[in-house]
Amino acid sequence: MHQALLETARxxxxxxxxxxxxxxxxxxxxxxxxxxxEDFVPAAYRNLAFADLEIPLAGGRCLPPPRVEARMLDxxxxxxxxxxxxxxxxxxxxSACLARLGGYVTSIDxxxxxxxxxxxxxxxxxxxxxxxxxxxxxxxxGGSFDVILLNAGALQRRHPGLEQALVPGGRLFAVIGQAPAxxxxxxxxxxxxxxxxxxxxxxxxxxxxxxPAQAQGFSF
Length: 220
Hints:
Elements: H1 3-21, H2 26-34, E1 55-56, E2 62-63, H3 66-75, E3 83-87, H4 93-101, E4 104-109, H5 112-124, E5 130-134, E6 145-150, H6 160-164, E7 166-178, E8 181-191, E9 194-203
Parallel strand pairs: 3-4, 3-6, 4-5, 6-7
Antiparallel strand pairs: 1-2, 7-8, 8-9
Protein backbone atom coordinates (compact mmCIF):
# COMPACT_ATOMS: atom_id res chain seq x y z
CA MET A 1 0.00 0.00 0.00
CA HIS A 2 1.31 3.46 -0.93
CA GLN A 3 2.46 5.58 2.04
CA ALA A 4 -0.19 8.25 1.46
CA LEU A 5 -2.88 5.57 1.55
CA LEU A 6 -1.38 4.12 4.72
CA GLU A 7 -1.53 7.51 6.44
CA THR A 8 -5.13 7.99 5.34
CA ALA A 9 -6.04 4.53 6.68
CA ARG A 10 -4.27 5.31 9.97
CA UNK A 11 -6.15 8.60 10.31
CA UNK A 12 -9.46 6.87 9.54
CA UNK A 13 -8.69 4.18 12.12
CA UNK A 14 -8.43 6.83 14.81
CA UNK A 15 -11.31 9.04 13.70
CA UNK A 16 -13.82 6.36 12.65
CA UNK A 17 -13.08 3.42 14.95
CA UNK A 18 -11.36 4.61 18.10
CA UNK A 19 -12.83 8.04 18.85
CA UNK A 20 -16.53 7.05 18.40
CA UNK A 21 -16.23 4.01 20.68
CA UNK A 22 -14.73 5.65 23.76
CA UNK A 23 -12.97 8.87 24.81
CA UNK A 24 -9.22 8.28 24.53
CA UNK A 25 -6.44 10.52 25.84
CA UNK A 26 -4.41 12.61 23.41
CA UNK A 27 -1.20 10.83 24.53
CA UNK A 28 -2.60 7.45 23.51
CA UNK A 29 -3.93 8.77 20.19
CA UNK A 30 -0.59 10.38 19.38
CA UNK A 31 1.17 7.11 20.17
CA UNK A 32 -1.14 5.13 17.90
CA UNK A 33 -0.54 7.70 15.19
CA UNK A 34 3.24 7.44 15.53
CA UNK A 35 3.70 3.63 15.66
CA UNK A 36 3.47 1.99 12.19
CA UNK A 37 0.94 -0.75 12.94
CA GLU A 38 1.31 -2.04 9.40
CA ASP A 39 4.89 -3.11 10.17
CA PHE A 40 3.71 -5.41 12.96
CA VAL A 41 1.15 -7.51 11.10
CA PRO A 42 1.90 -10.54 8.89
CA ALA A 43 2.63 -9.51 5.30
CA ALA A 44 -0.55 -11.18 4.05
CA TYR A 45 -2.63 -8.87 6.25
CA ARG A 46 -0.77 -5.60 5.69
CA ASN A 47 -3.70 -4.08 3.80
CA LEU A 48 -5.94 -4.87 6.79
CA ALA A 49 -3.62 -3.40 9.40
CA PHE A 50 -6.10 -0.62 10.27
CA ALA A 51 -9.35 -2.59 9.89
CA ASP A 52 -11.73 -3.07 12.81
CA LEU A 53 -11.02 -6.78 13.19
CA GLU A 54 -8.69 -9.27 14.81
CA ILE A 55 -5.63 -10.18 12.75
CA PRO A 56 -4.28 -13.72 13.14
CA LEU A 57 -0.62 -14.08 14.05
CA ALA A 58 1.68 -17.05 13.67
CA GLY A 59 1.40 -19.37 16.64
CA GLY A 60 -2.36 -19.14 17.01
CA ARG A 61 -2.77 -15.74 18.65
CA CYS A 62 -4.49 -12.65 17.28
CA LEU A 63 -3.79 -8.93 17.23
CA PRO A 64 -6.82 -7.20 18.81
CA PRO A 65 -8.80 -4.61 16.85
CA PRO A 66 -7.31 -1.08 17.09
CA ARG A 67 -10.19 0.27 19.20
CA VAL A 68 -9.61 -2.45 21.80
CA GLU A 69 -5.87 -1.70 21.92
CA ALA A 70 -6.63 2.00 22.39
CA ARG A 71 -9.02 1.28 25.25
CA MET A 72 -6.48 -1.00 26.95
CA LEU A 73 -3.73 1.62 26.78
CA ASP A 74 -6.01 4.45 27.84
CA UNK A 75 -7.39 2.57 30.85
CA UNK A 76 -3.88 2.01 32.21
CA UNK A 77 -3.24 5.78 32.35
CA UNK A 78 0.47 5.25 31.65
CA UNK A 79 2.86 7.94 32.86
CA UNK A 80 6.20 8.84 31.34
CA UNK A 81 8.23 7.26 34.16
CA UNK A 82 6.12 4.14 34.74
CA UNK A 83 7.77 0.74 35.10
CA UNK A 84 5.67 -1.61 32.98
CA UNK A 85 5.29 -5.39 32.73
CA UNK A 86 3.74 -6.83 29.57
CA UNK A 87 2.79 -10.50 29.64
CA UNK A 88 2.48 -11.64 26.04
CA UNK A 89 4.84 -9.79 23.71
CA UNK A 90 3.14 -11.23 20.65
CA UNK A 91 3.97 -9.28 17.52
CA UNK A 92 5.41 -6.39 19.57
CA UNK A 93 2.94 -3.68 18.56
CA UNK A 94 1.55 -3.05 22.02
CA SER A 95 5.10 -3.41 23.37
CA ALA A 96 6.09 -0.48 21.16
CA CYS A 97 3.11 1.58 22.34
CA LEU A 98 3.88 0.84 25.99
CA ALA A 99 7.52 1.83 25.52
CA ARG A 100 6.54 5.14 23.90
CA LEU A 101 4.09 5.93 26.69
CA GLY A 102 6.07 4.74 29.71
CA GLY A 103 9.54 4.72 31.20
CA TYR A 104 10.66 1.10 30.85
CA VAL A 105 8.95 -2.09 29.68
CA THR A 106 9.71 -5.65 30.68
CA SER A 107 7.93 -7.84 28.13
CA ILE A 108 7.73 -11.61 28.49
CA ASP A 109 6.31 -14.32 26.27
CA UNK A 110 6.11 -18.09 26.46
CA UNK A 111 6.99 -18.30 22.75
CA UNK A 112 10.60 -17.23 22.06
CA UNK A 113 9.82 -16.77 18.36
CA UNK A 114 7.46 -13.91 19.21
CA UNK A 115 10.14 -12.23 21.31
CA UNK A 116 12.78 -12.59 18.60
CA UNK A 117 10.61 -11.11 15.84
CA UNK A 118 9.29 -8.33 18.08
CA UNK A 119 12.86 -7.43 19.01
CA UNK A 120 13.75 -6.88 15.36
CA UNK A 121 10.74 -4.62 14.78
CA UNK A 122 11.39 -2.59 17.92
CA UNK A 123 15.05 -2.13 17.02
CA UNK A 124 14.10 -0.82 13.57
CA UNK A 125 11.94 1.81 15.27
CA UNK A 126 14.76 2.80 17.62
CA UNK A 127 12.83 1.65 20.70
CA UNK A 128 15.34 0.52 23.33
CA UNK A 129 13.63 1.14 26.70
CA UNK A 130 12.39 -2.45 26.73
CA UNK A 131 13.67 -5.93 27.56
CA UNK A 132 12.28 -9.09 25.97
CA UNK A 133 12.52 -12.49 27.60
CA UNK A 134 10.75 -15.81 28.05
CA UNK A 135 8.06 -16.07 30.71
CA UNK A 136 4.35 -16.30 31.49
CA UNK A 137 1.92 -15.76 34.37
CA UNK A 138 3.50 -18.66 36.25
CA UNK A 139 7.04 -17.37 35.72
CA UNK A 140 6.97 -13.65 36.39
CA UNK A 141 10.09 -11.50 36.67
CA GLY A 142 10.97 -10.19 40.10
CA GLY A 143 10.16 -6.70 41.25
CA SER A 144 7.09 -4.50 41.35
CA PHE A 145 5.44 -2.57 38.56
CA ASP A 146 3.36 0.56 38.07
CA VAL A 147 1.52 -1.03 35.13
CA ILE A 148 0.87 -4.63 34.11
CA LEU A 149 -0.76 -5.54 30.80
CA LEU A 150 -1.87 -9.15 30.36
CA ASN A 151 -1.80 -9.47 26.60
CA ALA A 152 -1.38 -13.24 26.12
CA GLY A 153 -4.91 -14.45 26.87
CA ALA A 154 -7.68 -14.43 29.45
CA LEU A 155 -7.76 -15.60 33.06
CA GLN A 156 -10.63 -17.61 34.49
CA ARG A 157 -10.37 -15.71 37.77
CA ARG A 158 -8.34 -12.92 39.30
CA HIS A 159 -4.66 -13.73 39.75
CA PRO A 160 -3.30 -12.80 43.21
CA GLY A 161 0.32 -13.08 42.04
CA LEU A 162 -0.20 -10.45 39.35
CA GLU A 163 -2.00 -8.12 41.74
CA GLN A 164 0.75 -8.46 44.34
CA ALA A 165 3.29 -7.42 41.68
CA LEU A 166 1.69 -3.97 41.48
CA VAL A 167 3.05 -1.10 43.53
CA PRO A 168 0.44 0.83 45.55
CA GLY A 169 -1.28 2.98 42.94
CA GLY A 170 -0.42 0.47 40.20
CA ARG A 171 -2.83 -0.67 37.48
CA LEU A 172 -3.40 -4.08 35.87
CA PHE A 173 -5.37 -4.74 32.68
CA ALA A 174 -6.63 -8.28 32.15
CA VAL A 175 -9.53 -10.11 30.54
CA ILE A 176 -11.22 -12.30 33.16
CA GLY A 177 -13.97 -14.91 33.03
CA GLN A 178 -15.12 -17.79 30.87
CA ALA A 179 -16.84 -17.62 27.50
CA PRO A 180 -19.32 -16.22 26.82
CA ALA A 181 -19.09 -14.06 29.97
CA UNK A 182 -15.67 -12.40 29.81
CA UNK A 183 -14.90 -8.88 30.95
CA UNK A 184 -11.95 -6.62 30.21
CA UNK A 185 -11.00 -5.37 33.67
CA UNK A 186 -8.83 -2.70 35.22
CA UNK A 187 -7.52 -3.61 38.66
CA UNK A 188 -5.96 -0.88 40.82
CA UNK A 189 -3.90 -1.45 43.93
CA UNK A 190 -5.27 1.39 46.00
CA UNK A 191 -3.25 0.56 49.14
CA UNK A 192 -0.87 -2.12 50.42
CA UNK A 193 -3.71 -4.58 51.04
CA UNK A 194 -6.49 -3.11 48.90
CA UNK A 195 -7.39 -3.66 45.26
CA UNK A 196 -10.30 -2.31 43.24
CA UNK A 197 -11.63 -3.96 40.09
CA UNK A 198 -13.51 -2.10 37.38
CA UNK A 199 -15.19 -3.93 34.49
CA UNK A 200 -14.58 -1.93 31.30
CA UNK A 201 -16.23 -3.81 28.46
CA UNK A 202 -17.26 -7.29 27.35
CA UNK A 203 -15.00 -9.28 25.08
CA UNK A 204 -13.96 -12.82 24.24
CA UNK A 205 -10.41 -14.09 23.84
CA UNK A 206 -8.82 -17.53 24.38
CA UNK A 207 -8.00 -18.55 27.93
CA UNK A 208 -4.37 -18.82 28.92
CA UNK A 209 -3.46 -22.49 28.77
CA UNK A 210 -0.67 -22.02 31.30
CA UNK A 211 -2.89 -20.20 33.82
CA PRO A 212 -4.47 -22.60 36.35
CA ALA A 213 -7.74 -21.66 37.99
CA GLN A 214 -7.06 -19.50 41.04
CA ALA A 215 -8.66 -20.05 44.41
CA GLN A 216 -9.72 -16.43 44.76
CA GLY A 217 -13.29 -15.67 43.72
CA PHE A 218 -14.21 -12.80 41.45
CA SER A 219 -17.14 -10.44 41.18
CA PHE A 220 -17.63 -7.26 39.18
